[in-house]
Write a structure and sequence with these properties.
2 copies of one chain form a homodimer.
Chain A (H helix, E strand, L loop, with lengths): L29 E14 L2 E8 L2 E7 L5 H9 L5 E10 L14 E12 L16 H6 L1 H4 L3 H23 L3 E2 L17 E3 L6 E4 L5 H9 L4 E9 L11 E10 L3 H19 L11 E3 H8 L13 E2 L10 H8 L3 E7 L7 H13 L6 E8 L2 E5 L8 H10 L7 E7 L1 H18 L10 E5 L4 E4 L4 E4 L26 E6 L2 E8 L4 H10 L4 H15 L6 E4 L3 H9 L25 E2 L2 H6 L2 E3 L2 H9 L1
Parallel strand pairs in A: 3-5, 6-9, 11-17
Antiparallel strand pairs in A: 1-2, 1-4, 2-3, 4-5, 7-8, 9-10, 10-22, 12-13, 13-16, 14-15, 14-16, 17-20, 18-19, 20-21, 21-22
Keywords (chains A, B): Aminoacyl-tRNA synthetase, ATP-binding, Cytoplasm, Ligase, Nucleotide-binding, Protein biosynthesis
Protein name (chains A, B): Aspartate--tRNA(Asp/Asn) ligase
Pfam family, one (chains A, B): tRNA_anti-codon
């Protein structure tokens, strides 16, 4: 019987040969391969079997002249049968060498073929990368996982996680497991909860992130903590969300913003240089303040792989005769826009469509100007052409770095609204016009976001990030007087227009924390109920600390060039949070409910109750 | 300001010096240390501060003649204050060098001391290893975690996990995350469940182990999977159980028992040789069949660190005149016992106590024989001395390898009962007589356990391990005729009398699986409901596979020399499954319950309901 012949492997890793290891130098050896029938081809008297495992594909030949027993078995096997094949490694005949396959110079002439397990015909082909309905893929996930795409993605994920661990452990980070059954935290989104059997009416929460626990580990003096942390969030699911997700959770003591940025930027630079198929657009990563990101890209996660930079051109229209612009400016609004290079010849239908799209984003209207050269002068074809003078057109073009042949798009509205609409429009046009440079990965930092945002509904300030985020030192004096202007020691890492992760330096001084809570309008009872244990811990010597939690799933998705998180998670849920393979969630036995002191109130019961 | 001066560290790990890195060669450098005040001593004009962080302790001296500002601050700091100290590294004066401390040759003469955060007096001392009430320790876990013991244990845990990952990854194991929100599995113990908001009355289960998922990963062709897997079990908690635990979960394709044993034995041998403070008693690990373990040690997790081996001496009493023995033997029972060396002089009170203890273990009685030399002949002092002849005593002594001065203890009962009672008695005597060799770690394998055990209550066979465990090939023929005799391809790893983990080779052929289910009396509906997805997966080409899941917490507990799992888990629960620090579980808001379609039925309500 054959033995594993890879001399670099540790002793006795396996007692057989994998389908990825045979090369020209093994010719003449007798080996045993184990794997799945990837393809079976009947060439006259010869039967060819491509045998597949995680490590590769090896061609097996069943020749009745060599072994009629092996040939006999080969006649009956079908795709996805599991076989053990013993035979000799031989050179492939001249002209049949397959350079695309690492084992393509050899084949194994079968002495003996044993069927370890037969297989029914799979509901979709394993060997071909055909499009398959996603529900079917999820239901038969164990078969989908056999296909090259998911094998590749999950092996990449494994390699990347190894790399991350190594990178962090080299820098003194300690991996510490935090509990899964914790207390409901005020992280914003809805918790998944777990009823207690011992305490009727009491529940644990599953962590949305180990935020408070990692801060407590800093109080405990562990200095640098990390965890590839499993998190759960009972959210309404959008296209690229999963109820379960994984984050690269980390926290450091005695650091400020620069230390965290340096660490994470080093991690992602090295990671992408090792594992991505595309280069980084820029190193070091550009840093944008939140204000700048919103102004120039209309987004807190700008995609820097294309231009179409937005600018504020309010000053150009200071004395405009166009009424709409005049009144927006009079109300304190802004006029902003961007130029689309070489799109001045856009047909009217496309311009109308753009206007429609801007409206769907919330715009009251969209102004377009097609710039043209007219005997040396720059003129604009535009619905508002008659309100524009030559100076305005020239200044506008200069501000937006536009020239003849370019299309200028303008939105006039309140500042936040204009920014958001133009940000979405920029993305739309960038995609439509194929301006996105798909040959690079573009990272950036978005820093110094506002500490608070105004909750219109509850008429109070709330923390934009979370209530432990530290204000910037220079903004401490205006905490009381102008909360809206206070910036946070927070930072987002953005890649290709996706937010990869967010983090902050935390408040470690009680008096600052109290001030923040009072601005947020929390009373002492509320503070104690929500944050009591953390605040108490901070009284016993909390070090300055901060951290971050980049999303692992999103990171792998971008590295793998996928557009859905489901392609990089072994067993994902669908958009109704169901596991179609396992059939979860599922009803509980009455006995279990009783033990948990619970009764289910079905929607019709609820109606009855509320009607009574 | 000082910089990190450890040249072997990666660039820019930190901008200050840790409390563990300064040595004689750094004398003359100006550094900044950050850490906690471990101890403060006032020696006349000089104030000494031991500054502590995860990496060590460095002595800081505040001398008013050198810096009155630093001395002024030092006068006000107390234990556990967080400081930043800048000063010069100087040699300690002759006679004050502390060889117990890695930084003991130097001290830092403070130029400047900044209080980063003050600290209240902790509820228990951090610097001393005093005994503290465990509830208090759990409530202030973040302070308990600062103490040397838990710092040591959690850093050990981190190192061991690193080692395990490295060991497995070198051998082609891929780390794959399996979901936390799964379907209730029939693993035996009670699931923790999570209500679905989207599907009223439906629940997810939290994994007790990723058993079925790892088998599906083998079907998916990942060949070798591992995960440091988080598991949860809603059990009634015993002393050394936790509702949350972590296992070294792994699975391999195309393997048999020997492959798994070799892998795991290599892992644990290397792990203990690297990290344990005591040597291994034996290498390779002894292997006992389950039958042998039960017979010789009365336990399926024998502690081999001491002798007191049990043997069956029924044959010695074949013709006994002692009525009790005679009738037990006549009923098919056994007489078993062990000898306690040098304990023949046990006073009557101790023998009575042993009898009491045996009774508390379920024995009907305990027979003791104190062996003595009497002019060359072996005689026995014993309550049943008059029933024993010289031959019987001699043969008994020979069988139990006993001689003059030894005490023989015998139990007569049904085989299983006798085994269990003697196993517990052996442990008790071993501990009481201090026979346990605490200077070594004793590993062993317990293999070939029965596949089935009889469920007296339900009058049916059930799987001893789990229903996918493969029978041994040579026992397949007696599956139908004598299920009780069928042995499983299962194995337990035992260390120092603790079961570290259990595993098995799984059934991969559908016809064998069907046979097992029919012996267990499952009908098709039951099979489909419980195992449908797994069995369906097996029809598409399942490789032979098997694995194991050693407990990580228990492993670290033994390595660290601790006797409770709570000492090796960062944030453990107490014996009522509460997190005393976070205050979990806790009541849920009415709104949350409504969203989950649940109503709490408090015990009094239940009474009312059942009374109605």
């Amino acid at each position: 019987m054959g033995e594993s012949i890879l001399s670099t492997e540790p002793r006795a890793v396996r007692r057989y040969t994998t389908c990825g290891e045979l090369r020209r130098q093994h010719i003449g050896r007798t080996v045993t391969l184990k794997g799945w029938v990837h393809r079976r081809r009947d060439h006259g008297r010869l039967i060819f079997l491509d045998l597949r495992d995680r490590y590769g594909i090896t061609q097996v030949v069943a020749n009745p002249a060599h072994s009629s027993a092996a040939h006999e078995v080969a006649e009956h096997v079908r795709a996805e049968y599991v076989l053990a094949v013993t035979g000799q490694v031989v050179a492939r005949p001249e002209g049949t060498i397959n350079p695309a396959l690492s084992t393509g110079e050899i084949e194994v002439l079968a002495d003996q073929i044993e069927i370890l397990n037969p297989a029914k015909t799979p509901p979709f082909p394993i060997a071909e990368e055909t499009d398959v309905d996603e529900s079917l893929r999820l239901e038969y996930r164990y078969l989908d996982l056999r296909r090259a795409r998911l094998q590749r993605n999950l092996l990449l994920r494994h390699q990347v996680v190894r790399f991350i661990r190594h990178y962090l452990e080299e820098r003194d980070f300690v991996e510490i497991e935090t509990p899964m059954l914790i207390k409901s935290t005020p992280e914003g989104a809805r918790d998944y909860v777990v009823p207690s059997r011992i305490f009727p009416g009491h529940f644990y929460a599953l962590p949305q992130s180990p935020q408070q626990l990692k801060q407590l580990l800093m109080v405990a003096g562990f200095d640098r903590y990390y965890q590839i942390a499993r998190c759960m969030r009972d959210e309404d699911l959008r296209a690229d969300r999963q109820p379960e997700f994984t984050q690269i959770d980390l926290e450091m003591s005695f650091v400020d913003v620069e230390d965290v940025l340096e660490l994470i930027e080093g991690l992602y630079t090295e990671m992408f240089e090792r594992f991505a198929s595309k280069p980084l657009q820029a190193k070091p990563f550009p840093r944008l303040t939140y204000e700048e990101a919103m102004r120039r890209y209309g987004s807190d996660k700008p995609d820097l792989r294309f231009g179409l930079e937005i600018d504020d051109v309010s000053s150009v229209f200071q004395n405009t005769s166009f009424g709409v612009f005049r009144s927006v400016l009079a109300e304190g609004g802004v006029i902003r826009g961007f130029a689309v290079p070489g799109f001045a010849d856009a047909p009217r239908s496309q311009l109308d469509q753009l206007t429609e799209i801007a409206r769907s984003f919330g715009a009251k209207g969209l102004v377009w100007l097609a710039l043209q050269q007219d005997s040396g002068r720059l003129i604009a074809r535009s619905p508002i052409a008659k309100f524009l003078n030559e100076d305005e057109i020239a200044t506008l073009a200069q501000r937006l770095q536009a020239g003849p042949g370019d299309l200028v798009l303008l939105v006039a509205d309140a500042e936040d609204t204009a920014a958001t609409i133009l940000g979405r429009l920029r993305l739309h046009v960038g995609r439509e016009r194929k301006l996105i440079d798909e040959s690079v990965h573009a990272f950036c930092w978005v820093i110094d976001p506002p500490l608070f945002e105004w909750n219109e509904e509850e008429q109070r300030w709330e923390a934009m990030h979370h209530p432990f985020t530290s204000p910037r030192d220079e903004d401490l004096p205006i905490l009381d007087s102008d909360p809206s202007k206070v910036r946070a020691k927070a930072y987002d890492l953005v890649a290709d227009g996706f937010e990869l992760g967010t983090g902050s330096i935390r408040i470690h001084r009680r008096e600052v924390q109290n001030k923040i809570f009072s601005i947020m309008g929390y009373d002492d009872t509320e503070i104690e109920r929500r944050f009591g244990h953390l605040l108490r811990a901070f009284e016993y010597g909390a070090p300055p600390h901060g951290g971050m939690a980049p999303g692992l799933d999103r990171t792998i998705m971008i590295l793998a060039g996928e557009s859905s998180l489901r392609e990089v998670i072994a067993f994902p849920k669908n958009q109704r949070a169901q596991d179609l393979m396992l059939g979860a969630p599922s009803p509980l036995a009455e006995r279990q409910l009783r033990e948990l002191h619970l009764r289910v109130v079905y929607p019709e019961d609820q109606d009855t109750t509320s009607g009574a």
